[in-house]
Amino acid sequence: MTLHSPRLPEVRAVPGVRVRARGWGWRHAGRRAWALRDVNLDIAPGERVLVLGASGAGKSTLMGGLAGLLGGEDEGESLGELTLDDRLPHAARERVGLVMQDPEAQVVLARLGDDVAFGCENLGVPREEIWVRVRDALDAVGLHLPLDHPTSKLSGGQKQRLALASVLAMRPGLLLLDEPTANLDPHGVDEVRAAAERVLERTGATLVVVEHRVDVWADLVDRCVVILDGTIAADGPLDEVLRDQGGQLRAAGIWLPGDDVGVVEEAHARMTMQPAAAGPTAAGSDAVVLSGRDLTIGYEQSRPVRAGIDIDIPRGASTCIVGDNGLGKSTLALTLVGLLPQLAGQVRVAEDLAPAPGRTDPHAWSSRELLGRVSMVFQEPEYQFVSRTVREELELGPRAAGTPAEETATQVDRFLRLLALDDVALANPMTLSGGEKRRLSVATALICAPEVVVLDEPTFGQDRTTWLELVGILRDAVTRGTTIVSITHDRSFVVAMDGHVIDLADLGWDPRTRTAAGDDPPVHPVSAADDPAPSGRVADDPVQPSGFVPRTASSTPDAPGAARSRWQAALRGELLQRVNPVVQFLGLVAMTTPLMISIDVLSASIALVLELLLLPLVGISPRQVALRMVPLFVGAPLAALSMLLYASPGGQVYWQFGPAIISENSVTLSVAILVRVLALGLPAIAVLSRIDPTDMADGLSQVLHLPARPVLASLAGVRMAGLMVGDWQALRRARRVRGIGDGNRVAAFIAGAFALLVLALRRSAKLSLTMEARGFGAEMPRTWARPSHVGVADLVMMMICVAVPVLALGAAVHWGVFQPLGR
Amino acid sequence: MSESNGRLQWRVVDMVTAAILGVACGVIFLVWNQVGGAAYSVIDAATPGFGGLVAGIWLLGGVLGGLVIRKPGAAVFVEVLAAVVSMALGSQWGISTVYSGIVQGLGAELVFLIFGYRKFNLPVAMLAGAGAGVAAWVFEGFFGSSPNFAKTLTFNLIYLSTMIVTGLVLAGLVGWLLVRGLAQTGALDRFAAGREIRGRV
C-alpha cells in the first residue's frame, strides 16, 4: 500500500524570490547606533549573491531582515522599505529558508525525519505530502540515513546539511545562508557547500550567502555585496569587487581566495617585527614536558574513544595534533591537561614541574596546582568565562595563584594592550565579538604563565585579522619558552606555527567496532519505493501508531503461536510501547495520585506488591529499576524517620526529646510512609524512562489538544537537556583549569547554575530564530506529520492503572485502616 | 505572530526561552537533588522542619520565568517544565514532583499577577519566591509522598517559616541576582528585563 510512486516529485523548481530594498535600515532596541541604514538593493529571482563584511558590520541584521525575524516595535525600529516579491518579509516567511552558523542551535527535534518535517507542519502541508518532501529534501542534501536517526548523533557538517534539508522541505524561493560553514572543519565545509550547490541546481531559488571565506562560495555566486559600517559599500560582480575592494576587505577580516597561503607569510613577517624574546628555557628543546603512555581515553569506561596512545610533547615548542573527526583529539587534549581522567594508562608531566616530587599525574593535582603549570583553551570560549568584566577575567588566574595585586595589575594591563582588548576592559566577556572572545580566552590561559597550554581548535571560525593576531600571540609564547599544543584542522595554522605535527590516526587504535569515524555510514538511500522497515513509521500505513520507533517484531495476529509470542512480547515491554505516551503518563497519574489520600501500611503495601507484579510488563530489567531507585532507597527511610519523630503523637508515647516524640501513632505512620514513598516513586521510575518526548508531545497536542506552541517549544527545549548536562560537565572542567575549581560545593553549584543559564539562553535565542524561520508561531492551522492515536492497548493500560489504587484503597476501607492524613 | 500586539502577549522568543529556561532549571534541580536534596532529607529527619531552608532552589523556576519573560503564565510554565524534566531524568518523588511544580509555579505566578505584571524589582522577586514557598508548604501539608499535616503543629510552623525564608532568599534574591547577571552578559537583550539593566549600548 505504497501511496507514492518511486521518485515522483523531484524537488520542484520553485520560482525565485525578488528582493527589493529602498533606504532600508534597522536599529535594535537598546542600541544607540543603527545596525544598518540606507540600504538600497535589488536582487533578481534566481540570482546568487555573496555578502561580505567585517564582523558587526550588519550582515546578520540584513539576513534577519530578509528572513522577517527582526521582530516587532519593541525589538527595534526600521527605516525605508524591504520587500520580497512586493510583500513584507515576515508575511512572506514561507518563501524564505534560513540556515545559520551554529549547528547545535538549528536542530529542533530529536529524530532526523521529524526535524525536516517540522517546517512543513508549521506551514500546514498535508501529512502525505510532508513525507514526500522530507525524503526529497534529505536526498537533495545527501543525507542518506534512516528517518528515525537521532539528530544528536550527527556530525557538525551533517547537522548543517540537515538544517539545509529542513529549510528545503519548505520549498523556499529565497535561500539565506548566514555563515553556514564557519563552525565546521574542512570536510564539513565541503559537505555543506556541495549540498547547497545541488539544492540550488534543483530549485533555482534566489541565494544570499554571508561568509568570511570567499573561496568557499566564489564559483557559486554571480554577485558580491560588501557591507561596511552599517551600509552597502560595494555591489557588483565578485571579481570586480575583489579587485577594487581587496585591501579593504582584508582589513575587515575577510579571507580572500588564496589567502590561506599568503597569511602564513604575513604571520611570519609580523614575527620579525616582534621584540626579541627571552629564548627557550634551560631545559633544552629535546626534553619532553608532557607525555602519555598506553593511554585509553574516553568519557565513560564502557565507551573508550581511542586506546594504546603513546605520545610525547616536546618542551618549549609548538606541537599541532591533527587528524580526522571522531579520532578523539579533544578527548586527548582534556586527558593530557588533567581535566578528564584516562580510562587506562598514564599521563606524566615533567618531574621538575610537579608540585611535589613524584606527583607527575596532573589529574591528581588540585585546581590551584594546575595554575602556572598546564592550562587549556576550550573550543567555545564562553565555557571559560566566569567574571563580570574583561579585566576581572584576566585578574582571576593571577589572583588565584596568589600574585601580589600590583604585579597582577601590570600584567593585566600588558595583556590588554597586547591583545587589543583595552577598549573593552570593562565590558562583560560574554558581550564581546567572536574574535575578541577568542583572544580573551587565550589571554586568560597565558596570563598565568603556564609551562604548557593546550588549545582546542584555536582558529575555528576566526576572521583573517583575529587569525593573524592569534598566530602572533602563540608564536610569541613559544619563543618565550611556553609549550603550545594545538588541536587543529587548519592547515595554514599548522604551517604558520612551524613546529611538531602529530597525526592522532598514527597513534594507538580505535577500540570501537567501527574503525575510522567516517561520515555517513554506507546506508542504502532513502527512497519511497523500496522503503524498508526503518522508515515504516512514516505515514504510509496510518493504522500503525507511527509515532513509535519501528518495531518489526510485532507479528501478525494470525501467525501460528501468536498468542504465546504475544505474551513474550508483552513481557519485553512491547505492550506498553503500544500505549500512547500521554496515556502512559495519565495512567501514572491515575495509579499513584489516589494513593496519596490515605497513610496506612495496608494500602501502600498492596499497591507496592501490585506494582512489582506489573513491573515485567514495562520491559525494563530489574537491575535497571533497582539502580534508578537508589534515590528512593535513601529518601524513603529518611522520610519515615522524620514522620517517626515529628508525627502528631497518639496512643502510647514511647520516647520524647524536645520536639521529637515517638508514639504508637508515629510508629504506624512512619512504617506506612516507608512503604508509601516506594509505592509512589516506583511507577514513575519504571515508566518514565521509556517515554519518548517527541511521541509525548504529539500525544499532548493531538490527543489532549493542548495548545501546540508551548508543547512544541517545550519539546525543542527538552531536546537540549542532554546538551545541558554536557555543558555542566564542561563548565566544571573549565573552572578547574581556571584555578577556581577547589571551592565549596554550594558556591560551585551557584556559579555552575549561572553559567548554565547563560549558555542555555544564548542557545534559546538562536533556537527561537530557527523555529520562527521554519514557520513556528505562524497563525495558520498546523498539520502533524506523525498521527497520535489511542486504542485498545491504551484502554487496557488505563484499566490496570485504575485497578491498583481501587484495590489498595478498597482493602484499606474494608479492613478499617483507611486514614486520610493519618488521622 | 512575531509582533507583540500587547505587552502581555507571548512572542515566539518568549515561548522558546521559557521552555529552555524550564529545561535548564530542571537540570539545575537535578544537580541540586544531589547537593541540597540529600541535605534536605537529612535535616528534615534530624530537625523539626528546618529542611525547608535548602528547598528554595527548587522554587527558582517560577521566579526566573516571571522575571525574564514578564508574561502571564511564565512562572507556572517554567516551574512545571522544570519539574517534569527533573522527574523524567530521575527524581525520588515520582509524580508528586509535577504537582509540586504546578503549585509552586502558581504561588510565584500569583505574586506577579497581584503586581499586574508591571513590577519586577527585588521586593517582587522575593515575594514571588515566598509565594512559591507558602504554596509548597500548603501542598506538602496535604499531599506528596509524606504529608506534613500528619506531623505536629510545631513542625509545621517551623517548616512554614523556613519555606518563607528560603523562598525569599534562595528563590527570590538568588533569582533576582541571576537575572541581573544574565542581563549583563547580553543573554537577555531581546527582553525588557535585559535591556533595562544593560541600558543603551
Automatic annotation (TrEMBL), chain B:
Keywords: Membrane, Transmembrane, Transmembrane helix. The chain crosses the membrane at residues 12-32, 52-69, 76-95, 124-145, 157-179. PROSITE patterns: PROKAR_LIPOPROTEIN. The keyword Transmembrane helix applies. The gene is ykoE_2. This is Putative HMP/thiamine permease protein YkoE. The keyword Transmembrane applies. InterPro entries: ABC_thiamin-permease_prd (IPR017195). It comes from bioreactor metagenome. Signal peptide: none annotated.
